[in-house]
Amino acid sequence: MALIEVQNLTKSYKTFKRKEGLKGAFINLFRREYEFVQAVDNINFHVEQGEILGYIGPNGAGKSTTIKILTGILTPTDGKVTVNGLVPYKQRQQHVKNIGVVFGQRTQLWWDIAVIEAFTLLRDIYEVSKTDFQEQLKKFDEVLGIGPLLHIPVRKLSLGQRVRCDIAASLLHNPPVVFLDEPTIGLDVAVKSNIREFIKEMNASLGTTMILTTHDLSDIEYLCQRSLIIDQGKIIFDGDLQKAKDELARERKIQVDLYERVDIDGIREQLKIAKLEFTRRNDYSLTISFDKDEISAIDIIQKILDHLHPRDIKIEEPTIETVVKEIYQKKSF
């Protein structure tokens, strides 16, 4: 049985259609019009124990609504949800003891007290033994380097320092499930790399199940073998984005820097390979575009080495952003 089960989940909101202007405000006093908005529209998915699931989509797609239902903050309009055998919105007190949550732009730590004092409060709330508490702190310091931050008030931490402490706080009681909402937002490259490594390490060593929502697709690419893409309340993709890259983004590019000036017609005649597109980048550089399913990059590169005098050759792979854009355009895959 999966650790997280979502079946026919629907969440709709009743919203007031406000008329504009003074006349509209007067009309609203006596006659109001409402409409229903489907934030989540009959979605189904499951998450296995120990999995890191990427959950992505544009603003307003339904990501946050889904996460709030899974954490017990919201009650769905229809459908069934279980997390670790519990119904989040019905057994909320028991449920929250078994999850960790990180919101990249909000802290769960108390603003005016030192980090260690906040951790101690959380230790008591989650009933973590002193021995386990000390072992967790040691582990967090080794990977996240939070030792020097423990006696600093939370309000004096930088964004990167605060996020590291928030992630440690969410894992302090070793929960089986952790929800990570934009955990690397606004962080510099070095801090972002450390946090990614920590998330991967915790997943590997503890088997922690994680759901990651983010707009930074490099996080998804590095951490998640499986991703869900939601758009307008519906799931339009469920699978491995790396495999989707091979199937959807078939075009590859080879950038060639030459010692002599680029002669597109002459190069096309020398290589004698059909279905290649040549684009001049500058006087001494060109790009060759091709379909990877029709010809291999190795064959093209061998021809280049045989007939031209390249100074440098570089293969350009499509990005995950390109793949996601393609999925949005198709709306399903």
Secondary-structure blueprint of this entry?
Elements: E1 4-17, H1 21-30, E2 33-47, E3 52-56, H2 63-70, E4 78-83, H3 92-96, E5 99-103, H4 115-125, H5 130-144, H6 159-170, E6 177-181, H7 189-206, E7 209-213, H8 217-223, E8 226-231, E9 234-239, H9 241-248, E10 251-258, H10 264-271, E11 277-282, E12 285-291, H11 297-307, E13 310-316, H12 320-330
Parallel strand pairs: 3-7, 3-8, 5-6, 6-7
Antiparallel strand pairs: 1-2, 1-4, 8-9, 10-12, 10-13, 11-12
Helix pairs in contact: 9-12
Q: What is the helix content? A: 25-40%
Helices and strands, in N-to-C order?
EHEEHEHEHHHEHEHEEHEHEEHEH
The counted number of beta strands is: 13
**What distance separates the N and C termini?**
26 Å
CATH-derived topology of the largest domain = Rossmann fold
Biggest beta sheet attributes: 6 strands, mixed
